[in-house]
Automatic annotation (TrEMBL):
This is Odorant Receptor 4. It comes from the Eukaryota. The chain crosses the membrane at residues 37-58, 70-87, 132-159, 185-206. Keywords: Membrane, Receptor, Transmembrane, Transmembrane helix. It comes from Dendrolimus punctatus (masson pine moth).
Length: 278
């Protein structure tokens, strides 16, 4: 077995984080601020419209639509917390990625048994990445559900002689937009694109945060497996003190790695669990 290319192995994850502008290597300068504004500006604008729509629905005692619009509002709030945590702990996450990269570079120097143990957990991480990709496409395909629904309903109304454009997500924007949305193609397209952008941003941020913790923890499991292998028959060989000292250093390294994971992801995964319930 040979070592693995870290960047190639985590290409999906790193690409997603770079697209969301939350990768540890992303420079935080004026260009980052501008790109963040362009990326998240419409995202936040829809959030404001949704909050306003909820208030309007409540004032009209339309609690069903109010509750329906509260769901994307809650998802936005959870995503903001997750994104803030990714930005806040970007240096620590970058440190963990660097440590993993260094550990992967040491794989060719391991014996065959240690390599097999390490690659077992690497394969588990691969399974997570594959499911991450599948889950991404599954969530992304949900956009097409709304698009197809709009096409079918628009066709249905046209067949009845009452043609009207069906929005991506039916909600209250402003009096002007609501009055002209069905008759003005530009306004309709604007609201439609913003709805799609909102869904894409929610999906991208959620999936940037979701796989990181399990991937890091599986790496820790691989490190612990190497320590177990080292500890076997340690007293039956020479240089016992030296070997024990090496094991202690490895354990300290693992404890530090786990501490950094807890620092970065404890609060984030509490938010993710609550978001999943929504």
């Amino acid at each position: 077995m040979e070592g693995i290319d870290f960047e190639k192995f985590f290409k999906i994850q790193t690409t997603g984080m770079k697209m969301a502008l939350c990768h540890p290597d992303t420079k935080h300068d004026i260009y980052w601020l501008l790109k963040s504004f362009l990326l998240h500006g419409q995202y936040s604008m829809i959030f404001v419209f949704l909050c306003n729509s909820v208030l309007i629905d409540i004032s009209k005692h339309d609690y069903f639509n109010a509750f329906r619009n509260c769901v994307p509002v809650a998802i936005y709030i959870c995503n903001v917390f997750e994104y803030v945590m990714l930005i806040k702990h970007r240096k620590t996450i970058g440190k963990l990625i660097t440590l993993m990269r260094d550990d992967f570079n040491k794989i060719p120097n391991l014996d065959s048994r240690s390599k097999s143990a390490v690659f077992e957990y690497i394969n588990n991480s691969t399974w997570i990445m594959k499911n991450w990709l599948f889950f991404f496409f599954l969530m992304f395909s949900s956009i097409w559900i709304f698009i197809v629904k709009g096409i079918i309903l628009s066709t249905y109304y046209a067949a009845k002689g009452e043609f009207r454009l069906v929005p991506f997500h039916d909600m209250y924007y402003t009096d002007y937009i609501d009055r002209n949305r069905d008759s003005n193609l530009f306004i309709f397209a604007f609201t439609y694109v913003m709805g799609i952008n909102y869904t894409c941003c929610c999906t991208m941020i959620y999936l940037c945060a979701l796989p990181l913790g399990p991937i890091f923890m599986l790496h820790v499991c691989g490190l612990l497996e190497l320590i177990i292998i080292k500890f076997e028959n340690v007293f039956e060989k020479d240089n016992v003190n030296e070997r024990l000292n090496e094991i202690v250093k490895d354990l300290q390294y693992v404890y530090g790695f786990v501490e950094d994971i807890n620092t970065c992801f404890t609060f984030m995964y509490e938010v993710i669990l609550k978001q999943t319930m929504i």
